[in-house]
Amino acid sequence: MRIGLAALSPARRTTLMRSDAVQRLLAFAALIAIILIFSLLSPNFLQFDNVVGILIATAVNGILALGVTFVIISGSIDLSIGTVMTLSSVMTAVFITEWHAPVPVGILAGVSTGALAGIVNGTLVAKLKIPSFIATLGMLNVAKGLALVVSGLKPIYFNDTPDFNRAAMGSVIGGVIPGLDIPNVVLVLFGCALVASLILTTTVLGRFTFALGSNEEAARLSGVNVVGWKIAVFTLAGIFSGIAGVLIGARLNSAQPSLGQGYELDAIAAAVIGGTSLSGGEGSILGTVIGAFIISTLTNGLRILSVPQEWQTVVTGGIVILAVYLDIVRRRQQQ
């Protein structure tokens, strides 16, 4: 499952793997329960348009959560993903609308902006030994400020490139199956989740991500280039933030420089609810995707029931606290 488990006995390793599976199963059961409760409370909840709305809302937050999952598993945290997403969206808009670059170039610029922010974060944490909480909190403000500066404090609209919005909000599935108009942004989410899962479970980066979170000193003594791989983890998180920035720009048909702060909390919540341990060394992409759907489904259901937004935030925060507490209990039982 992970290189950090290599030194454990087979029985111990099996126990941890079963614990991860149980965590994902519980998260999925919670998602089903939430869907059933809201469908009973409101006849509008399971209408097709509302379900599509949940899928769209999950797309951006889910992609951000994929990136932060790697960071949390490695034993760090990234608070900058939301504003890095915003800066990436702004840079995409600048390239496409102001510099008249082709759309693919603009998309590449947005994703590259996220990757660059990730490299900076990783360098601050791995080389300069700045705690990830502080380093990424600083990057949160840097990215937020740069987004406002570059955009001139105003939204940038993609009015001259309508195909950009259609590519994201159009439906390939609807073209094949009439009536099943699921936007392409949802397909991007599942595509990113598949790639992230393959990276985490089948590549050296994935194995070293678990190793860093399980025991960084042991990984260093084993010859692992801790600095290099930690930078790689933050860079990957930045790439996912860049992709999310491109998607939210295409979805809104504009780059909103004041948007973004707060998204990191929902992304971290999705990862934690899905079973990623804030202590590092444990987590899965499937669990994170389920967690992202729990957050968006819960938010949507509360909105349909006309629950004030401030109380929606209270409920989400309470669920995160509960998820962290259950993780602490689970880890104690494993010891």
Roughly how many Å is the radius of gyration? Answer: 20 Å
Major sheet size, sense and barrel closure: 2 strands, antiparallel
Low-confidence stretches: 1-9
Instruction: State mean pLDDT (0 to 100 scale).
Output: 90
Total discrete domains: 1
Strand order of the largest sheet: 1-2
Provide a count of the helices. 13
- What is the CATH first-level class name? Mainly Alpha
Total count of strands: 2
What CATH architecture would you give?
A: Orthogonal Bundle
Roughly how many Å apart are the termini? 18 Å
SSE pattern = HHHHHEHHHHHEHHH
Tell me, briefly, the overall form.
globular
Q: Which percent bin holds the helix content?
A: over 70%
Question: What does this protein look like?
Answer:
There is one protein chain. The protein contains 13 helices and two strands, in the order H-H-H-H-H-E-H-H-H-H-H-E-H-H-H. It has helices at 10-41, 48-73, 81-98, 103-126, 132-151, 162-169, 172-176, 184-202, 204-221, 226-252, 263-273, 285-304, 309-334, and strands at 156-157, 254-255. The chain has a two-stranded antiparallel ribbon. Helix 2 runs parallel beside helix 8 (184-202), helix 2 runs parallel beside helix 9 and helix 3 (81-98) crosses helix 10.
